[in-house]
Amino acid sequence: MQPNSPRLITPRSLVLSGMIVFAVAVRLLAYFQPAALPLNFSPVMAIAIFGGALFSDRRLALLVPLLAMFVSDLVIGLHVLIPVIYGCMALGVLLGSGLLRRKRSAGRVIAAAVGGATGFYLITNFFVWLTSGMYAMTASGLAACYVAGLPFYQYGSLPGTLLWSGVLFGGFALLSLRFKALNAIPQPAR
Known about the structure:
- This is Rod shape-determining protein MreD.
- The chain crosses the membrane at residues 12-30, 76-97, 109-128, 160-179.
- Keywords: Membrane, Transmembrane, Transmembrane helix.
- With 190 residues, the chain is mainly α.
- It has a domain at 11-116 and 160-182.
- The chain has helices spanning 11-32, 44-54, 58-76, 82-100, 106-131, 139-178.
């Protein structure tokens, strides 16, 4: 390694990666032990927003949450809407990068969490309506699809994204107070 090149493995990257691995483990727990958490109470969008906000290398910010999703999906199972879901995760990374990279506050984290969960709900339910054959291809069919998906949003993805965003961002902020090396943001190689 050259003297001025950034290190890939730093205390910051280890903590960020560890927090994401923890959140993925919770996703698998929710799948295999459904009584443990409300349905769709997933940390996945929070992982994407967190990665977008805190990874200095934007490629890594996108790669880590998508790789974590892919590994857990290999265990849970792949399905036809995976590209749509991964696209939503990429939008979550962009949301975290755009809204939280330079300035983080509780209000901004809440806005990103609500925006990410709401965008995920609107986009994925639209594609369920479009591809599943379960709903009429009419405005009332689309409305019925959104109504059917509302409990997953209302009791699962929205509160889950809010809680896990608080855990990830709050946990990292607390660790950063204790371990100053976490505040060092390495510059990506050009």
